[in-house]
Each structure stands twice: as C-alpha cells, then as structure tokens.
Amino acid sequence: MTTHYLIGGSGIPNYGDELIASAWIAFIEGKHPTDGIVLDVKNRKASMEIVRSGPNVTHVSSLKDVAHTKSASDVWGNIRRGLGFIDNNGFKKYEKAAPLRDAMDDLGTFHVFGGGYINTRWPAAAFYLGLGVAVKEKTGAKLFASGLGLMPWAPPETEAERELAARVAEAFDVLEVRDQASADAFGAPITAGLDDVFLLPTPQRQAGLPPTLHISLTFAEKNWEGFADRLVAHVAQTYAPAFQRVTFWNNAPDKDAFALKKVREAIPQVEVIEIGDLVNAPLPFGEDDAMVTTRFHPHMMAARAGIPGLYRQGNSYYMTKHGSVALLGSGMKPVEMKNLPNVLPTDRGTLHARDAELRAQKLALAERIYG
Fold first, then answer.
1. How do residues 20-69 score in pLDDT, each as one tens digit?
2. Strands of 333-334's sheet in order across
3. What values do phi and psi take at 46, rounded to 5?
4. Percent of the chain residues topping a pLDDT of 70
C-alpha cells in the first residue's frame, strides 16, 4: 500500500493549521481512498479531535520533537541537520522518528504543507526541508512543499548556504510558498503561490442571517501596551451596537484566552464559535456582516467571502501575512492604535470575485502532487 507522509502545524490547535490539514486529508482521500496517510503534527490528540479523517489516516506527533532536539539556531543549520539525519543514524538515535522509518519502504510522497511555522522565529522546523531531501534521495518518493510562509527568513549569506538553497530547491518536485516575499528571500528559485486554504471552496455569504460582527483577536496573553484594552472597548462601544449578533472566533483556545476574556467583559452577549466548528462547519457569514481581526486565516477566509472590516497587522511577521491577503484583493483595512475609525469600512474588495480562479490554481497544484 502506498503511503503519503504529511508534516504540518496542526495540533496546537490553531484554526488555520487544522483547516489546512483537513483540506489536504480530504483531497488525498478523494484521490487515493485506499492509500495510507501519515499526518505528522504538533499534537496528535489535539489534531485528531478536529481534523476529520478516514480509517487509512494515522495521526502521529513525532518529527516535531526530533526537529527541536539539538536544533541549530538558524534555518540553514537546521536544513543541513535534516539532510544528514538518515546518514547520521537518526532513526537509531531518535525512536520518535519511527513512524517515518516505518513508512519508508512504501513511501509515495513526502509533503511539508502550509502554515507559517518554518522561519527565523521557529528555525528548528527548517529541519523538515532538509529531511525531505534526504528521504527522497533514499526512497525515490516524490517531494513536495505547499503554501509555506517563510517570512521572516534569513537569506543565504555564504557560498555554502547558497549551494544548500539550490540543492533544496532542485530536489523538491514542488516547493511552493504562499507569498512573494518568501520566494524572494529563499535564495534559490521557488514558486510563489497561494496559501493552502485555497484548496477549500469559497466561503459563502448566507441570506437571512442576522447582521453579525465577527471578532477574531489574539493578544498572545499580552496587553500590547494598552492596544488590547483600547481596541476591545472601541469595538464594544462603537461597532457592536450596529449588529444584531457578535461572535468571537476561538481560533486557538489557549492563545486566545486573554482576548476572549477581554471581549466577554466588554460584550457579555458575545457568542463563542469554537475551533472545531470553524474548521468543520460552514462559516456563519451573512450578507451584512463585518470582521475585526488580528489573525491571518480568519482575515483570509473573510476576504474570500467578501466580508469587510478591519485587521491589525502588529509585527513584521503579521505584516507579511496580512499583506499577502491585501495583495490578493481583501477589502479589509489595516488599523493601528492611533487610527481606530468610528465607522467600519464597507469595502468588500476584489478577492471574492476572483476566488474561483485562485482556487482552480491551487487545485491544479494539488492535482500535480497527488493526481
């Protein structure tokens, strides 16, 4: 039986990561219903609770620990470590890597799928790119990466790093990143494509739903120098009264706890939509809705549906992420502490009008991988 080995960020849990994992599993099951799938994620149990999958899917949490053990401090050092993992007796040294070892004999594909977890903020995960090259060289399996967000990235500075970038780019049958900035920074020609959520159908605005303000915030348990208090108070006092319903998207229950606490204090009637429903049920978008978000994938899905509103960019990491949605045609407007408007924008943008075209582009890449 052919096995497909996938590595991603699912299992934090975090809305975008589980959404993407679910999309890839559904696509592969549809194309190859009898093939085996190993989904290697951050937390096996948390991923299994949200990512729906059939009997041929095995959820594991193994390579994360291998990648972080004795990791280098830079992305290139971790790519190099991944390249040498098998030859340096990595399977004997790290029992955690047993799921990959056991899959090697009938491995058809090795796929590092999207999310923004490989970059200089989390350099250990660059190990997966080097490991993928090593796996391909040992097994002949097809090697893919899709929808990766590499920024912030450290472009190669030495000749050895430039050679390493070229080796990785040449080894991957597909190496796609989700924004041009990631492609430009990598150091060798790779594909600037789309986020993996474009595997999913365009979210639809449903007629007959009450006008709803969707709130999707995280403050990472920090007050962002008063921005959290000011933003939540402004949303509660200025925006929420114009809507019949207010929802809070609980994208990452642990990380969003501080934001949810703030919103509940300011808007007691807020309805919480849990991550499992966000991933597995239709998004509850109506014709007269709007969103206020600091999170990337809610921004992306809202923009795909033509939902207007505001997004807060924050640091350079989120500037690249939100900026990529803006470049695709989001109508949502950036907001900072000093320019909170008194009226929410109503611009639906242009992304929703061309979403079918972009989804077709992503599905064509998926067909190239698993067709």
1. 999 999 999 999 999 999 999 999 999 999 999 999 999 999 999 999 99
2. 271-274, 245-250, 212-216, 290-293, 309-311, 333-334
3. -65, -40
4. 98
**Residue 18 and residue 10 in contact, taking contact as beta carbons nearer than 8 Å:** yes
Q: Could you read off the pLDDT of 108-154 as tens digits, one per residue?
A: 999 999 999 999 999 999 999 999 999 999 999 999 999 999 999 99
Q: Tell me if 3-200 shares its fold with 212-354.
A: yes
CA distances from 226 to 23, 59, 141, 230 (A): 37, 40, 51, 6
Structure tokens of 239?
């925006």
Strands (E), the chain: 3-7, 36-40, 57-60, 107-115, 142-148, 174-177, 191-192, 212-216, 245-250, 271-274, 290-293, 309-311, 333-334
Domain 212-354 has CATH 3.40.50: yes
**Confidence band for 314, pLDDT divided at 50, 70 and 90:** confident
Q: Tell me the C-alpha distance between 292 and 266, whole Å.
A: 15
Residue range 286-297, pLDDT digits in tens: 999 999 999 999
- Determine the Cα–Cα distance for residues 175 and 169; give it in Å rounded to an integer: 7
**Domain boundaries in the chain?**
3-200, 212-354
**Contact between 140 and 109 (Cβ < 8 Å):** no
- pLDDT of amino acid 226: 80
**pTM of this prediction?**
0.96
Closest CA to 288 of 235, 204, 209, 355: 209
- Residue given tokens 């925006």 in the structure block: 239
The Cα 86–Cα 104 span in angstroms is 11
Long-range interactions of 66-72: CB distance < 8 A, separation 24+: 66/90, 66/94, 66/96, 66/97, 66/127, 67/124, 67/125, 67/127, 67/128, 68/124, 69/94, 71/123, 71/124, 71/127, 72/123, 72/124
**Domain 3-200 falls under CATH 1.10.287:** no
